[in-house]
Amino acid sequence: MIHIVYMSRAVRPLSDQDLQALLDQCRRDNAARNVTGVLFYSHGNIAQLIEGEKEVLEPLFDVISRDGRHSNVVKLVDKPITARSFEDWSMAFHPLEPSGFEALQGFLLPRHLPPPPSSLSIADAMLVDLVRLAVFGADAAPAEPEPAHA
Amino acid sequence: MREQQLQDILQHMPAGVATLQGPELCYGFVNEAMHTVLGAPVREGQPVAEHPGTIPADLLEVMQQVFQSGRPYVAKAYCIPLPAAEGKKPTPRYFDVALEPVREGDGPVSGLLLFAVDVTAQEEARQKAHHLSIETRRLDTRLRVLTETVPQITFTVDAAGKYEYVSPQWYYFTGQPPTADLNAIWPLLIHPDDRLRVLYQSDSARAAGIGWSYEYRLRRHDGQYRWLLSRALPELHAPDQAVFWHGALTEIHDQRELAEALRRGEAELRFLADSIPELIWTATAEGFIDYYNEYTAEYSGLTKEELGPTGWINLLDPSEQAGAARRWVTSIASGEPYEGLFRMRRHDGRYRWHIIRARQLADERGPRWFGTCTDVDDQHRLREVLQTQYDELARTNRDLDTFVYTASHDLKQPVLNLRGLFEELRRTASFNDPEDKKIVGMVDEALGQLDATLLELAATVQDQRGLSAPVETLDLRSVADEVLLGLRVQVQESEAVVDLDFSAAPTLTYGRANLRSILHNLFSNALKFADPERPPHLQVRSAVTETGQPVLTVQDNGLGMELPGRPAPVFQPFARQHPHIAGAGVGMYLVQRIIASRGGHLDVTSKVGQGTTFTVHWFEN
Ligand SMILES: Cc1cc2nc3c(=O)[nH]c(=O)nc-3n(C[C@H](O)[C@H](O)[C@H](O)COP(=O)(O)O)c2cc1C
Known about the structure:
Chain A is an alpha/beta fold and 150 residues long. Chain A has one domain (2-136): Alpha-Beta Plaits (2-Layer Sandwich), CATH 3.30.70.100. Chain A contains 4 helices and 6 strands. Chain A has helices spanning 16-33, 54-65, 98-102, 122-136, and strands at 2-10, 36-42, 45-52, 70-80, 91-93, 107-108. In chain A, strand 2 and strand 3 (45-52) form a beta hairpin. Chain A is globular, with a radius of gyration of 15 Å. Chain B has 17 helices and 22 strands. In chain B, helix 14 packs across helix 16 (512-528). Chain B has 621 residues and is an alpha+beta fold. In chain B, strand 14 (351-363) and strand 15 form a beta hairpin. Chain B has 5 domains: 2-118, Beta-Lactamase (2-Layer Sandwich); 150-251, PAS domain (Beta-Lactamase, 2-Layer Sandwich), CATH 3.30.450; 257-375, PAS domain (Beta-Lactamase, 2-Layer Sandwich); 380-464, Helix Hairpins, CATH 1.10.287; 471-617, Heat Shock Protein 90 (2-Layer Sandwich). The A-B interface holds A 7, 76-77, 79, 121-127, 129-131, 133-134, 138, 141, 144-146, 148, 150 and B 285-288, 308-314, 321-323, 325-330, 332-334, 339-341. The complex binds flavin mononucleotide. Flavin mononucleotide binds next to helix 1, strand 3 and helix 2 of chain A. Chain A: Residues 1-92 form the BLUF domain. Chain A: Pfam families: BLUF (PF04940).
């Protein structure tokens, strides 16, 4: 099993409907292929972590990276893992109309995102934190700044 | 019949036909088409001049002249506008009008034959073509002005590679006379190192029918070679068959020099970074490491790929990773500099202390992070060693104080005895010699001084060290841990295993400094006299005897020693069992004295080559 993390930019801003459609399609197709993961979206910034079998994930990443809805796809990690960490996750973004999305399955408002699961290595958890920071900015990060002790 | 047929044909001819008779030029035969030309119905016998219609005055004039002179006349593309309704502009129509004089036999001209062929469409086409050519000329001029004023050299080259056109800038640039043979000279002006490449590249582009874009050096009028960018696109006449290439040469020398300087600067900086024996790295605005210097690979034994964008965290001591990661994310979010002291794993698995520092650089290329990891292990270790040595010195100092204290205490009794004996001597012996009396007085005085000095010594040390401090209830475990912390270097170096078991009697009521002194001496002794064949193993246990008294045993697996046969104090000051091993020899004497002073005693059993066990009976004498 491997996981892949990438960041990209949406070619056009994605509307709530676009995101909803993407969410539906991803949930359906990923479930069928036993792919799990999480997708972050905000103001054209995209980041996604996908985990699954290598034979499934690598072609999927090829398809995703050629998807015309985004560009500048930069792969950050592609490496073997021993366990899944995002089985219950799907997507997090700032919808323009939050009311309709709160109840939606697999969707989370960025500020409701839990910290990365402890099944991730510290290096990978930090990567997810940085990716989330890059997509949503500093405000959405769950504020738990440690008192700096130099 | 034939006449009738002719009439019919004339009537329906697509050209206007009319006969005009007599000097008045009265309408005779007028066919249908001519009616259309005239735009209004005419009667036979009506003079043309009377017909209020379409025939312009100048044509009427010409008709008169043809009639009089008898010379035919043809007016090409003559405009006879179609009369329009009130207020509307008449539609222009064009006709080729032929006027043919008619004679009866050889007689004088009796009338005119009038032909009018509609050439409006042709005329309009011609006029359009005319306008077009004017427009083309205008565009052409504009293009020329443009191509001759832009800073670029523009050119046109044909499929065979022959230059059809080059803008005057080429001549300014190269300094060649306008008479120069472009095709012969141009290749000679290209820098020799670029010439073959350029000729080949343009050749193959022309063969493939595609455009090109390449850079090369061309010699300027002053002999200097300047970098130019040559770009050209084919002009396709038939699909896939280019006839001409039009292009421009742009001077990019300065940009190129700048880019070159930048590249060189970057390469030099990188070289610098790669030459420094320190871990250096850069990170993107998002906090992902995108460059590690060569030393990083050397130190960690991992490639850039293996380290990855966040893999540096794996180099840290596992207990420090989470905190370091959290602080990095915080720095990225806030832009605050990053700094911390961490142990970093070297390729051989050893951890060395490093200060990791990173700062954000924000310029027009967006924020980036620059970081270093400075090896401070030697300093760190030196500090630790110094601390240990300091601890050791403080200990020894304390031990000496204790020694002075106990020694002064121990000497008190003999001095007391001496004074008693001296008093006895003075009482029983008689001193006749006055000198003797003086000496007796001096001895008495010296004894008094000795006594006072001992007292003073004891009092001073006692005050300073709190050795006679009141007893308190002490947690054996925490005091033992404290002592082991002071000995950690020795413990680490000898790879000693220390088992502490205070479950049977966890606390002891004793003087804190005394207990520490005793444990320190017992532990350090055991480590010092370890058997070099095996790592030391200390077993420390507290217990309560049958009589309810607390005891402590310290058992080691060290060298062991020969014990003297008689049950006497085992340890005399400065007497050492193992002269080859460093130590003041005073420690165990102290231990014994302290224990005795508190009403206890020390037992020892030992086997050479197997180890020694000390048993402290705290209060049982
Ligand atoms: C940002 C982004 C993330 C995507 N993530 C997934 C994904 O996790 N799983 C998936 O099946 N398709 C994902 N897609 C969609 C794929 O690129 C592709 O459109 C989809 O698999 C449908 O492909 P198909 O038409 O060949 O079936 C994503 C697209 C974008 C733009």
